Amino acid sequence: MSDELILVVEDEEDIQELLEYALTNAGFRVDVTDRGEEALELVDENNPDLVVLDLMLPGLDGLEVCRRLKQNDRTRHLPVIILTAKGEEEDIIAGFNAGADDYVNKPFSPKVLLARVAAVLRRSADSRPDAEGAVAYGEMRLHPGRFEVHVDGQPVTLTHTEFRILQFLLSRPGWVFSRNQIVKAVHGDDYPVTGRSIDVQVASLRKKLGDAAQYITTIRGVGYKLGE
Ligand code: CA
Fold it and tell me: How far is ligand 1, taken at its centre, from the CA of residue 10, in Å?
């Protein structure tokens, strides 16, 4: 049994019931709402561990709810799984750009949804800084203060730029970052690097990470993300 609290934001009654049933059965505590505004209030009041968020909601829509959660320092690390009805690529990319951690297409199987919930919860626990401020993902561990990266306990020597790119990707596992976002995060707005040079940096970073390179995923035509 888990005592983790999942907030379900869904306005279709049958899907809401299906989600509540599946999650409760899996041992989660569940809060349910059909309104985006109320979702934000419930996050404030009850501090859930994860949000399952429908995109098409009356009033404040799911993308806006996601954006507000991810823009707020207090809720930035709260994982969000979006439910997309159309399964269209643009919806999924918009969701990732709003900060979503994963997505599930409707109609979905409860088993798949539960697997995604478990995976996102695990990832989110991994990506929280430990007592020393280090961030881990899989067998990678990055220590911002010491400027160190270890893979499987072995130190890896990165350039400053490679380190900053990895740190940026690690800041939001599962989040798709465009090349421009990476350029800005790594060098600040004035640096004259292009998206192409980010590709070169990432290729070099992957080579140095060895087996852990598998965690850096190329999103064709967009950029990169950490995670499968
Ligand atoms: Ca809906």
Answer: 6
